[in-house]
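In the design runs reported in the main text, the only information available to the sequence generator was the tokenized backbone. The following block is the verbatim input for one such run; it is reproduced so that readers can re-run the procedure and compare outputs position by position.
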């Protein structure tokens, strides 16, 4: 039976570090770090995540400001809000909850956020910084996954990491971070031939595709470390249940260590969002 990597515990540790750093920040600068969360429409899952983020922010002493916009808001109206938040000195971090309704251009909205306030690390300039190994804001889910990997395995040098999924928000930045940590990195996706045999070579297997229970036991090398980024919601007998991209029951009998869903990557994502907000606030202070 695999070691269960406890994301709640890891996130509690990071949150208490951030809370301490926020106290120091306030004493030094006389202001409170601020995070603006923009939610367009009334998708119930997004509402749950936004509520969690706002709650955790308060817990670590970060002021959070929620902006709710109607699902049919225009691109111009959303851009105007982003411009206003960019110019507001009380706002140090801006998160526009994704996905946005189809009539809105996500790339344009994300690139309208001031790069210094882009706490998701999705702005083109932060993407370029990560790709070239320069300092910047790093996406929260991959960053949280790396922390759990380091705490589980120590130095990752020379390990073969396979990332399933090539999204801009998880797969690609995850691969960049693993490469920076000296892993041999392979990315697989829907067009990969014999995906199972590639995954079976992995010392580290990261699943980030949004397909419930895609990864089976015979995709996993015995003893491998498995990071499950999937958050798939299903309603079973009227109850809301979460599934990862990994078939936990079977894979946990083969893997050396594995993150559960819930209680794995999700809580670490939120903790890193708040760490990024403090980093953003620090970078905006006069020297
Ligand atoms: N601009 C933007 N940035 C994001 O970081 C972002 C986003 N948009 N859109 C949606 C996804 C999803 N996401 C999650 C964060 C925490 C949990 C989380 O805390 N999950 C808990 C369970 C929560 C539950 O019950 O649903 C857990 O896994 O234990 C889940 C999902 C951030 N996202
Ligand atoms: Mg894909």
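Verbatim output:
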């Amino acid at each position: 039976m695999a070691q269960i990597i406890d994301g709640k515990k890891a996130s509690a540790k990071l949150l208490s570090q951030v809370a301490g750093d926020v106290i120091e920040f306030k004493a030094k600068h006389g202001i409170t770090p601020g995070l603006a969360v923009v939610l367009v429409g009334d998708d119930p899952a997004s509402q749950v995540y936004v509520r969690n983020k706002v709650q955790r922010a308060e817990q670590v002493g970060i002021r959070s400001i929620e902006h709710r916009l109607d699902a049919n808001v225009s691109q111009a109206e959303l851009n105007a809000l982003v411009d206003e938040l960019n110019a507001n000195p009380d706002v140090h971090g801006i998160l526009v909850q994704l996905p946005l309704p189809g009539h809105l251009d996500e790339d344009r909205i994300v690139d309208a956020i001031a790069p210094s306030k882009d706490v998701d690390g999705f702005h083109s300039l932060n993407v370029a910084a990560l790709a070239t190994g320069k300092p910047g804001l790093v996406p929260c889910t991959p960053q949280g996954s790396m922390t759990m990997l380091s705490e589980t395995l120590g130095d990752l040098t020379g390990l073969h990491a396979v990332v399933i999924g090539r999204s801009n928000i998880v797969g690609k930045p995850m691969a960049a971070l693993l490469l920076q940590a000296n892993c041999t990195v392979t990315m697989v996706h829907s067009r990969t031939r014999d995906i199972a045999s590639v995954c079976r070579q992995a010392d580290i297997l990261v699943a980030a595709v949004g397909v419930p229970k895609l990864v089976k036991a015979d995709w996993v090398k015995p003893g491998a470390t498995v990071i499950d980024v999937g958050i798939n919601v299903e309603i079973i007998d009227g109850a809301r249940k979460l599934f990862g991209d990994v078939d936990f029951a079977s894979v946990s009998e083969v893997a050396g260590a594995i993150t559960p869903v819930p209680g794995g990557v999700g809580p670490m994502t939120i903790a890193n969002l708040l760490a990024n907000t403090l980093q953003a606030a620090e970078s905006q202070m006069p020297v």
